Amino acid sequence: MARSAVVVGAGIGGLAAGVALARAGWRVSVHDRVPVLEPVGAGISLWPNALRALDVLGIGDAVRARSVLGAGSGIRRPDGRWLGRSDVAGALTARFGDPMVIVARSELTGLLQELLPPGSLHLGSRVEAVLPGDPAGSEPARAVFADGGQVEADLVVVADGIRSRSRSSLFPTHPGPQYAGYTTWRLLAPAPVEVHGTETWGLGGQRFAIVPMSGQRVYCYATATAPAGTVHEDEAAELRSRFGAWHDPIPQILRGLRPGDVLHHDVEELRAPLPSFTRGRVALLGDAAHAMTPELGQGGGARRWRTRSPWPPSPSGTIWPPPWSGTPGSGCRERLVSLPAPVPSGASRRPPVWSVRGCVTSPGG
């Protein structure tokens, strides 16, 4: 009889985990609290390790076809003066044989959803808690739903994001996410003529980045130091007031934005690491396990690389623990170097660009 797995969360990480487990012969159900998987988010960068994981899932070439290759970029001042240039994409291709690509989150989510077995995706299905079970015995893990129902499984994958209810039930004393000291805006917009990738740095933690995408679009993100919970009636107007006088083509990109075109969120992180990414028959994935600020992350790379080869049986025939999943920083081999110390609440957490090398999590080290 096929082993069973419950995946909590139908974001990119949860969908990829469900697809990988199903391809490995598991009987999978994926649950998410939302009634409809509507397009959410803007763009996402996929590095070579993420593309290889998507190759294993069978959609690597489809993602490449919908993507724009990452190109030369650099850092500028608000007046347009270049502070530095780089060719990250060229360096990645030369070293790893694959580029970094940029794709719309909604397109990647749609491709992953199509690979799930029919009837395995359950929307409007809120998981309130997870019971870990006993990997050394016969006690299964259990997902507890908002309506009081429970589902038993050989494995539960928790991928329900930074505010994971399941994580809270597994590690009730963990403090949870904390504000990183700055807020961010994200958007997709029509591309100006001859646009190039840039990130522009100003005062007060203000940054504005332009990332070319397919379909004559650009993905942009902006940041600023601000008190937690600050919101604006018109986020597009707020962006124009902050960045509308910066160098071209930033004003052109902002000019036609409507309030609904802009996503605005405070940046949060799990500053206190979890004692483990597993408990019993449960594994945590993505932001539910190790939410970090964007500067310390690797686009969508780590979560998809981690779902590439799901939990193979050990020689004894048991399925637990995954040989690469234990304590953060050891079995997971997260290759972080020179991490900055925590900063006071309200301060801008912008680590130097050299603070992380790769940030790749892989079963092979």
TrEMBL record:
Which SUPFAM superfamilies does the entry link to? FAD/NAD(P)-binding domain (SSF51905)
Residue ranges constituting the FAD-binding domain according to the UniProt record: 5-299
List every stretch annotated Disordered: 292-332
Q: Which GO terms describe its molecular function?
A: FAD binding; monooxygenase activity
Q: Where is the composition biased (Pro residues)?
A: 310-325
Fetch the Pfam families from UniProt.
Answer: FAD_binding_3
Q: Which UniProt keywords apply?
A: Monooxygenase, Oxidoreductase
Tell me what this protein is called: 2-polyprenyl-6-methoxyphenol hydroxylase-like FAD-dependent oxidoreductase
